[in-house]
Amino acid sequence: MTERSEADAQRPDAGGQRLTTRETAERLGVKPETVYAYVSRGQLSSSRAPGGRGSTFDAAEVDALARRNGRREPSSAPGEPAVRTGITLISDDRYYFRGVDATELAAHYSYEEVAEWLWTGELRPDIRFTAPEQAVVAARRAVGALPVHCGSTDRLRVAVVAAATADPLRFDLSRDAVLGGARSLIPTLVAALPTVGGEAGRLSASESLARQLWPKLTTRQPDEPSLTVLDTALALLIDHDLAASTLAARVAASARAHPYAVVSAGLGVLEGPLHGAASGLAHRMLAEVLERGGATPVVADHLRAGRRVPGLGHRLYTGEDPRARTLFGLLARIPQAGPALAAARDVVATTARDTPLHANVDLALAVLSVASGMPAEAGETIFAISRTAGWIAHALEEYGERPLRMRPSGHYTGPQPPQPLPYP
User: Fold this and answer.
1) Cα separation, 248 vs 266, whole angstroms
2) Cis peptide leading into 259, omega within 30 of 0?
3) What pTM was estimated for this model as a whole?
4) For residues 7 and 26, is the Cβ–Cβ distance under 8 A?
5) 200 in helix, strand or coil?
6) Backbone φ and ψ of 328, nearest 5°
7) Contacts of 422 (CB under 8 A, 6+ apart)
8) Secondary structure percentages of the chain, helix, strand, coil, to 5
9) C-alpha to C-alpha distance for 186 and 332, rounded to whole angstroms
């Protein structure tokens, strides 16, 4: 039995939530010995667990002590807040969803199946997400009113707001309500995007999300290997621990924002060039490499201008991004992806002469978009649609935590008071 399940077993039916000594220490950000020092000083009360197997502590009392002491979530490193999560683990150049290798999940199951696994810990074979007609109509009307120069992330942000207005029960934060809304929101976002090259035939709701998304990205007809790459990319990108957009989503959920607002918060951060939009930079670079016949002059131009070479390196991996490695393996089976894949490998090899950087998922998305005749922003669209499921997973987790716990204290560096009253 794990420590968490031991603690559950030790909680009396009539009482509040009970924590083990280890859980109490983690919540207070101290060592276990300090917990017992608090008990001896009368600052914390404890109860003996059944069978004499350690002590348990009242969670509300522990949280009150944490607030009095000015402590919040324990820090993993100076300046980096640590958030307890059971969703994604990144370790030794691999990453796991609920303890299962994420690349293996993506290789064997569809995006919808992996999303459901991440939300519930249960596998539902052949599950399909469906969009309510009312939400689709509202989202398409709102997206259609945007200026023609708007990008896909602009459209998705507007579509989320429109879908929220079509859901009067969006403030219900119960688990079943949030899950039901998530299963309808994601296909609504896809349906709200305009079809590239004009209207296409209406796809059946029984089609996979990848097949529904494909005509929103390119005019080319999809073959099964290409759809497999897109579906795998969606599954791989669902979550990646506390990335910037995910942290924003959790902050919104901590304030008990409804799921649509949580997704809006994530989308607002995603558009940055160092996050979801990074694949667009890699797309333009690969297109230029193909146009100029080699990576050397293109890489040289980036370095001369003081710019980073897009699609290379990742702060969480010392080697190749496992998401890139998986997608490159699938892209190698598609003949029309050959030139773009060779261009990507040329970029990696050229840059490696001086700096040992490896390919990341943005470069792999760029190969997919260039090879499939997609626009530069296609990778960002794939990223946003996919990551919506991850934001929902983190919202579900955060709704179970103490409200407003993600409220750091500012370190004031301004003039010390009292200062004189300013005058014109």
Assistant:
1) 6
2) no
3) 0.81
4) no
5) coil
6) -60, -40
7) none
8) 55, 5, 40
9) 29
Which amino acid makes up residue 162? A
Q: How far apart are the first and last CA of the chain?
A: 68
Q: Which two tokens stand for residue 197?
A: 């090259």
Residues 6 or more apart in contact with residue 199 via CB below 8 angstroms: none
- Quick count: other Cβ atoms within 10 Å of Cβ 168? 8
Q: How confident is the model at residue 394 (pLDDT cuts 50, 70, 90)?
A: very high
Contacts of 143 (CB under 8 A, 6+ apart): 155, 158, 159, 162, 192, 193, 194
Identify the DSSP state of 372: T
| CA-based nearest residue to 223, from 370, 375, 378, 372 | 372
Segment among 9-13, 37-41, 187-191 with least mean pLDDT: 9-13
**DSSP one-letter string for 180-201:** HHHHHHHHHHHHHSPPTTS--P
Rama region for 81: left / alpha / beta (φ>0; ψ in -120 to 50; rest)? beta
Q: Are 161 and 189 within 8 A, CB to CB?
A: no
DSSP 158-171: HHHHHHHHT-TTTT
Write down the H helix ranges in 166-314.
Answer: 175-192, 209-213, 224-236, 244-254, 259-270, 278-292, 296-304
Instruction: Identify the residue whose tokens are 């035939």.
Output: 201
Tell me the backbone φ, ψ of residue 314, rounded to 5 degrees: -155, 130
Pairing between strand 75-77 and 88-91? unpaired
DSSP character at residue 359: B
Token pair for residue 44? 């914390």
Answer yes or no: are the C-beta atoms of 354 and 125 closer than 8 Å: no
377, amino acid identity: E
